[in-house]
Amino acid sequence: MKKIIIIVQLLVSIATFGQGFLHRDGQKIVDGNGKNIILRGLGLGGWMVQEGYMMQTQPFASPQYVIKQKIQDVVGEQGTKEFYAAYKANGITKRDIDSLAKWGFNSIRLPMHYNLYTPAIEQEKNGEITWIEEGFAMTDNLVKWCAENKIYLILDLHAAPGGQGNDAAISDYDTTKPSLWQSEANQKKMIALWKKLASRYRDNQWIGAYDIINEPNWNFTGTNKNGCDENSNGPLRDLMVQVTKAIREVDTNHLIFIEGNCWGNNYNGIFPLWDENMALSFHKYWNYNTTASIQKILDYRQQYNVPIWLGESGENSNVWFKDALTLVENNNIGWAFWPMKKIENIAGVTSVTKIPEYDVLLKYWKDGGQKPSADFAKKTLMKMADNYKMENVTVKPDVIDAMFRQVQTNDTKPYKKHAIPGKIAATQYDLGTNEHAYSDKDFINYRVETGNFDQWNKGNTMRNDGVDILPCKDAGSNGYQVSFIEDGEWLQFTTQVAKQKAYKVAIRYSSENSEGKLHLETENGKKSETITLPATGGNDKFKTVVLSGVELNSGTSKIKVVFEKGGFNLNYLDFSETKKINKK
User: Fold this and answer.
1) What is the fold of 411-577?
2) I want to staple 217 with a disulfide (CB 3.0 to 4.6 A). Which of 18, 226, 237, 283 is the partner?
3) Rounded to 5 degrees, what angle do the CA atoms 39, 40, 41 make?
């Protein structure tokens, strides 16, 4: 009887928690129970494959192998090994995955560097393929942490043997060696690696899919070096077919994602598809968030009866994030944003703090000059590696809010608790999108026709909204100020007002030579007088003016600070009690 009870309990457990393998069901991705799944994921960019722009070493050291050379130059071979050991150990831990799950992510995309799993072909003997345990151990740990949080892990070969694209930083492509496309040995190694991974993880249901080659960008027959004008893409298709065949020899369970040329988006010549459990990945950066921007991939879904997935996106403003994710989710498309950790980053879910000593190394690597001592360089690099720990990064609540809550609603919520009486930092305006939590005239970045970037946050610090923020050294600040204020812009603050009273507001600001004007408005239609902010004689010379007679009701109050005339910097507003409201 006891044995029967145990079997029943086991079956109940499987029914409750056995979500099954993600797989294709027509044009949908579903779990083992047939439930439609919208993947909401984050790419762990920078952990296994460093890219120069994340390390602030671009353009003088963009691919990882060049970054590593720069590091070895200042700390030697042993110091380099110690740095990378700490960097990888700190870069992603269980605490990171716990955090991602708590924030709302249900999947993770792992950008893998092949050289953590198998040596470069130049290091192999007699054409053999050998294995390195480090990458597999890192992946084992990661999938374990994902399983504990009930989120899917998508394996992404980000740096294939030899490098799969002319955009060298992405795949760590060394132009002095044969690329993936110029070497049969590299292709064989890639196929063998995928077979090895598939054999290892074939029974693991928390492995969501295999993304078999990231952003190939190579001209096989065309003139565009990144493969954007390719019409056949024969070598790419042939290799993906061979990889799929190798995977299916050992694993018939897992979904396979494929990517086109031209950073994943050129599917000319890739069809017809060759596997029943497959989906198309596309990447989306900086373009408009209209149906037209994804129409081609939508057409592929319909024409070939196959699921589609936004495998990589990000690096823009919160408004762009909200619009992009609203667009794809409304079209039943899952997504994986990019990246997890980057130095001094406002557009990601976290930011790694840069220490001043690191700037010394960056300057030397870029310009030469006096070489920093090995001791100085090692201490600096090890401190930077320590800053990659989850407990040491700065979490960006505005970015997380834009990716999840703002996709569902235009409602605003407090950035932090604001009590009146009390001081409110200008940069701590409400969480929400443009024209709801704030109004700013440059709030999104498109790079469509001209190829130019429009800066959505001129200060590029603290927050990723349209509001322009700079560091602030004025006494009493939170370290930041709102700057580049234009006429007609505004900020909203959700506050908790202690008493129904008339308050006076001390406004702390600076302005080199422009006269500013502002007033306050409440959601019940009350509007304060307009106050003039005379020029202070310098952007770092702050003064205080007092706006009196601001009537507020007790309880929750949403207050707008409306900039009638811009051209100044705003540090904070300090509310204090004056007289009682005359209720006649």
Assistant:
1) Jelly Rolls (2.60.120)
2) 226
3) 105
Going from the C-alpha of 515 to that of each of 359, 438, 469, 527, 562, the distances in angstroms are 37, 22, 19, 21, 15
Buried b (16+ CB within 10 A) or exposed e, 47-83: bbbbbbbbbbbeeebbbbbbbbebbeebbeeebbebb
Question: Do strands 350-351 and 334-338 pair parallel, antiparallel, or not at all (unpaired)?
Answer: unpaired
Count the neighbouring beta carbons within 10 Å of the beta carbon of residue 223: 8
Structure tokens at 166: 């002319």
Number of H helices, E strands in the chain: 15, 24
**What is the identity of the amino acid at 199?**
S
CA 168 to chain centre: 20
- Whether residue 235 is preceded by a cis peptide bond, meaning omega within 30 degrees of 0, is no
Locate 5 and state its tokens: 């009870």
Assigned token pair, 219: 């001209």
Q: Could you give the CA distance from residue 413 to residue 431 in angstroms, rounded to a whole number?
A: 5
Q: CA-CA distance, 230 to 178, in Å (whole number)?
A: 21
What does the alpha-carbon distance between residue 108 and residue 535 come to, in Å, rounded to a whole number?
50
Cβ atoms of residues 240 and 210 within 8 Å: no
Cβ contacts of residue 134 below 8 Å, gap of 6+?
116, 117
Are 147 and 106 spatial neighbours (Cβ–Cβ below 8 Å)? no
First-to-last alpha carbon distance for the chain, in angstroms, is: 81
- The reply to whether omega before 421 is within 30° of 0 (cis) is yes
- Where exactly are the structural domains of the chain? 24-47+92-352+388-399, 411-577
Q: How far apart are CA 47 and CA 97, in angstroms?
A: 13
Architecture of the domain defined by 24-47+92-352+388-399: Alpha-Beta Barrel (3.20)
